[in-house]
Amino acid sequence: MGKKLEEIFKNRENTTHKKWLYFAKSNFYLFAFFVVFLVFSIACQRFLTAKNLTLILVQASVMMIASMGVTFVILAGSIDLSIGSIIGIGAATTAALGPAMGLWVIPVATLVGALCGLFNGILFSKGRIPSFMATLASMTILRGLVYIITKGVALPITLPHLRIIGVGKLVGVPISVLVALGVVVLSYYLCHLNKFGVMVAAIGGNEKTSALSGIKVNKIKALVFVLSGLFGGLAGAVTASRIRYRDRYYNMCCFRWNSYDGRDRRD
Amino acid sequence: MNNSDIVLKTEGITKRFPGTLALNNVDFSLTRGSFHGLIGENGAGKSTFVKILAGVYHKDSGNIWINNQEFEPKNILNSTINGVSIIHQEAAIIGDLTVSENIFLNNMTKYGKIRLNWRKLNNEAEKLIKKYEIDIDPKMISGKLPIGQQKLVELIKAISTNPKILILDEVTANLDAEEEKLLFKIVKQLIEVNQLSVIYISHRMKELFQYCDYVTIFKDGKVVSNKFVSETTSDEVTSLMVGREIKAQGYYRHEFKTNQYNENPILSVKNLTKKFEFEDISFDLYPGEILGIGGLSDAGQQGIVHSIYGDLRADFGKIFLRGKEVQIKSPTDAIENGIGFLPRDRDREGLILIHSVSDNICLPILDKITSNLGSIKHKQKKNISKDYHRRLNIKSPNIHTQCISLSGGNRQKVVFAKLIARNTDILILNHPTIGVDVGAKQEFYLLMQEFIKRGLAIIMVSDELPELIGMSDRIIIIRNGRIAKVTKHDEKPSEEQLIRYMVK
Question: For the whole prediction, is pTM greater than 0.80?
Answer without folding.
Answer: no
